[in-house]
Amino acid sequence: MTYALLFSVFIIASCGLIYELIAGTLASYLLGDSVTQFSTVIGTYLFAMGIGSYLSRFIGKGLVAKFIAIELMVGVIGGFSATALFLSFSYAKSLKPLLYFLVTIIGILVGLEIPLLLRILKDRLQFKDLVSQVLTFDYLGALVASLLFPILLAPRLGVVRTALLFGLMNALVAAGTAWLFRHQLSQLRYMFAQCLLAVVLLVGGLVYAERLTAMAEGELYADEIIYAKSSPYQRIVITRWKDDVRLFLNNHLQFSSRDEYRYHEALVHPGLQSLNGARRALVLGGGDGLAVREILKVDSIQSVTLVDLDPEMTRLFSRHEVLTRLNLNSLNSPKVKIINADAFLWLEENREFFDFVAVDFPDPSNYSLGKLYTTAFYRLLRRCLSDRGLAVVQATSPLFARRSFWCVVKTLESVGFRTTPYHVYVPSFGEWGFVIASQQPYRKPDQYPPNLKFLAPEAAPSLFHFPKDMAPVEAEVNRLNNQVLVQYYEAEWHKVTE
Fold first, then answer.
1. Partner of 278 for a Cys bridge, out of 107, 355, 445, 468, CB 3.0 to 4.6 A?
2. Bigger pLDDT: 357 or 119?
3. Among 306, 250, 346, which residue's Cα sits nearest to residue 29?
4. CA 322 to chain CA mean position, Å
């Protein structure tokens, strides 16, 4: 019995950490800024656990029965927490109140578990052995959960199924405890009935998890969802309405097929066409293959290296029929080499040189993305350019995030780049900005490939003119140790969405 109860410590520790990770992951998926979300979720959760531990002193008789009841509450509330958060965000368009309410309740209940188990086990082990063994199993459970969640659970099961699975494990711990103490419990049948009800609810949730998620996302996205999957790095959703295909990453629109050509032609050709006979190109980010598609339109290009963190993205855009039509099957070109790696770390180890680099990362909405817009990153970028090479960086909107845009410009200049900012109107996004970063003076191209849909020599000069409401403003340099760009970006886009 003692070892069975110690094993239950391992299980409940795993479950408790999983609920915490799920809350933080969903908050970062749906609200952005993963550092802030994980920090506040973890802080709230630990504070609530402290409250639960304190409240355990007021539980007197019937420790086993109360422990079983707490396990069932943790299992049901924690198990359905991800479902509730998805539905809340989809239908109520509000997440934070429910998020912190659930984190607090689950934290209090989890905080009650270990003190009660210590008291249940106190007559079976000496105090020094009791504390050491319970805490050992507690920490081991947390370690296993922290490893399994990003490697296996989130990418394979998704956050909704993972929560329900671990809720089921809590319910089974409750049932197992009831069985171990069956001779001491006065209302055994009633407790087994409660355990059975919790198990049925959670198993039912597992069976219908896909429908629940689809229902929530169906409400969240206006158009038909043709693909949805959580990778270890992000939630990928593809929607379609008639001929309009859209990509969403963590609920943020990345492109619409109706006008993405404006963005990607502007990203690639003003820089690439200014280089006579560029041969080697590098794309950082851009796992959708759309920037690669544009680069391959230039005959002189002999090789394109694509570095994207998420293998699910490059796999999806290499195989899905709708998406390969959109990127002209660019990722399957013999000229293209795909590397799934963190671009920052890859650049540190890279010893190759490139004539043209397209930096197509998502906006700096959190610190993990913000590092890709810092002086540290741009120094690495400069090191990989050939003598006559240049890079182009997508730099968010100079209209809606004006200080953020000019912060990127100033950061590039601070590491020795000559910068040429420009912008383009993309109907899905509004005005969008880019920065050409070169070591030699930039010369605007005289011609563009004839098969482009948007760019032409007569229209291109207007891209480099900034009206008053997008003109330069003062901004600090974005460094790795301050990441001021993330602060600018969050403040400016918050005003737009108010």
1. 355
2. 357
3. 250
4. 24
- Contact in structure between 111 and 121 (CB atoms under 8 Å): no
pLDDT digits (tens, 9 = 90+) for 385-432: 998 999 999 999 999 999 999 999 999 999 999 999 999 999 998 999
**What type of residue is 360?**
D
Comma-separated ranges of CATH 3.40.50.150 domains in the chain: 255-497
Give the model's pLDDT for residue 123. 67
Exposure on the CB side of residue 47, measured as CA atoms within 13 A: 10
3-state secondary structure of 306: strand
> Is the pLDDT at 216 greater than 80, yes or no?
no
Please, which contacts does 121-130 make with residues 24 or more away whose CB atoms are closer than 8 Å? Answer: 121/2, 121/5, 121/6, 124/1, 124/2, 125/2
Q: How would you write 99-164 as a 3-class SS string? A: HHHHHHHHHHHHHHHHHHHHHHHCCCCCHHHHHHHHHHHHHHHHHHHHHHHHHHHHHHHHHHHHHH
CATH code that applies to domain 2-217: 1.20.1250
In 3D, which of 87, 222, 239 has the Cα closest to residue 163? 87
Instruction: Note the pLDDT tens digit of each residue in 132-157.
Output: 887 888 889 889 998 998 888 877 78
pLDDT at position 220 over 80 = no
**8 Å CB contact between 489 and 398:** no
Give the active site residues. Answer: 360
From residue 116, alpha-carbon distances to 26, 60, 174 in Å are: 30, 10, 13
User: In the numeric block, which tokens belong to residue 453?
Assistant: 């849909």
The closest of 429, 496, 438, 481 to 258, measured between CA atoms, is 429
Which pLDDT score is estimated for 91? 67
| Cα–Cα nearest to 272, from 455, 35, 112 | 455
Residue 209 CA: distances (Å) to CA of 79, 157, 158, 163, 165:
11, 10, 10, 10, 11
Give start-end residues of each CATH 1.20.1250 domain in the chain.
2-217
| pLDDT per position as a tens digit, 190-208 | 899 999 999 999 999 998 8
According to CATH, what is the number of the domain 255-497?
A: 3.40.50.150
Structure tokens at 204: 């039912």
